[in-house]
Amino acid sequence: MKVLVPVKRVIDYNVKVRVKSDQTGVDLANVKMSMNPFDEIAVEEAVRLKEKGAAEEIIVVSIGPQQAQETLRTALAMGADRGILVKTDDAVEPLAVAKILKGVVGEESPDLVILGKQAIDDDANQTGQMLAALLDWPQGTFASEVVLEDGKANVTREIDGGLQTLSLQTPAIVTTDLRLNEPRYASLPNIMKAKKKPIDEKAPGDYGVDTAARLTVVKVTEPPEREAGEKVEDVATLVSKLKAEGAI
Amino acid sequence: MAVLVLADHDNESLFDATHKTVTAAKAFGGDVDVLVAGKGSGAVAEAAAKIDGVRKVLHAEGDALEKQLAEAMEALIVPLMDGYDALFSPATTMGKNVTPRIAAKLDVMQISDITAIEGTDTFERPIYAGNAMMTVKSSDPKKVVTVRGTSFDAAGEGGSASVESIDAPAGPFKSAFVDEKIVQSDRPELTSAKTIVSGGRALGSKEEFDRLIVPLADKLGAGVGASRAAVDAGYAPNDYQVGQTGKIVAPELYIAIGISGAIQHLAGMKDSKIIVAINKDEEAPIFQVADYGLVADLFNAVPELTEAL
């Protein structure tokens, strides 16, 4: 079985973003970039499937600038077999990403595509579902457990109020939630080995996809600031303040 | 102009997120219809017909619609969109799961989690866990959006729309429902609770979480939330998680106990009306957004607070 895992290069999870003063976006200059955390979970899940003998090959793909190659190397060091860089300096929207991925799926014929449920930069939470629709594949989004058996993927999903398990015919799309697994750190020998793993370079045009944006950014602004209030001395003061406000 | 609103429900009751989505749809403009897709969901369709400002309820019943599985929902909704200029879904796990499939089939770039509407093509939405707000203008002929519930008031009752039955899509579909573990609780659901008591890692164990957070929530008739750290440590179930990747809440009163206030947590609760923080670390970032901060050992302060109420 072949598994495809798309990975995105985003601002590191721990970096506090700054909105540019001209309101055109957020400041990406000299900011630490990393693999989207949900995508790390997706890579980890694929690697575990391979370690269990359920998957033979893991292909990772990233759509982005030349530097996205570093993100692919990270995935290769975690245990993926080879990478595809679909190189573009444009900001590619989820719909166009899904179309490019459909092209990659057409060439690679994976049985499973595992994606992060959302990227922590645009927080869109769309790409996996869109890819599933474009391919007419079933989807198991927000997965906290994936079990493969007899040509089916049984996916347990985190939904409002609890958990839901679906049985999907493969090929299928899975998107990862936080608790699917805890991604490993790549070991130094594996980082060295990853340098020798192949990365193919492509362009969106190779898949016939027009990446022109459908959404124009009008402005990007700071969220309304919330002022720190007051410190209260003790529980009694807190209770009386809350009573005075009618909150309790 | 006409907007189709996708209803979220459990076949028995219509979720409040639907009423909020109707409000957003009304702000967008035009006639507002609500789609109720389910099984044995007649009462839900009747409830949707009573929402103020709804023109018509479309009601589809079918086995594959019972759990609103994405593949069946796509087959149902895509043909309906011929008659609509926009699809508005609540940004609940149901809406997030289903809506992008429809957008892709319509070749529309979806706008997720909108917090404001500035015209028929311009919407505001949070990015970077709410650390920036982005306003975008869509060039697509139809608009497909999901609506952040905390940014819109629930539409009231008082409508008397007609309910029109429509056919469920013919299967088979490539996914099947196996089972579900829904936590049965008398507590208010987090996204609609007026008061929320949330616990963090400082509680140290599930036993302490249950011993300290739950009685306080009971006293206040509050929903119970948790930080990601507390959920990851197993102190509280997954669906308690408040934050960027969990639930987005905006109650009248949010009491954060033993929560340091990572940006990902703040993203989920900073629109609450009054925030109370109890933490022994006076440098904890949660105090920067709290209206009332109490620097204290939670193991003493929380029982005292529960007692005082």
Automatic annotation (TrEMBL), chain A:
Electron transfer flavoprotein alpha/beta-subunit N-terminal domain location: 23-211
Q: Which CDD domains match?
A: ETF_beta
Cofactor(s) for this UniProt protein: AMP
In terms of domain of life, where is this protein from?
Bacteria
Which residue windows are coiled coil? none
Q: A GO BP term, please?
A: carboxylic acid catabolic process
| Entry's Gene Ontology molecular function annotations | electron transfer activity
Listed SUPFAM superfamilies: Adenine nucleotide alpha hydrolases-like
What UniProt keywords apply to this chain's record, in alphabetical order?
Electron transport, Transport
Asked if the keyword Protease belongs to this entry, the reply reads no
Give the quaternary structure. Heterodimer of an alpha and a beta subunit.
Q: Which family does it belong to?
A: Belongs to the ETF beta-subunit/FixA family.
**What is the role of the protein in this entry?**
The electron transfer flavoprotein serves as a specific electron acceptor for other dehydrogenases. It transfers the electrons to the main respiratory chain via ETF-ubiquinone oxidoreductase (ETF dehydrogenase).
Could you identify this protein by its name? Electron transfer flavoprotein subunit beta
Give the species this sequence originates from. Answer: Henriciella mobilis
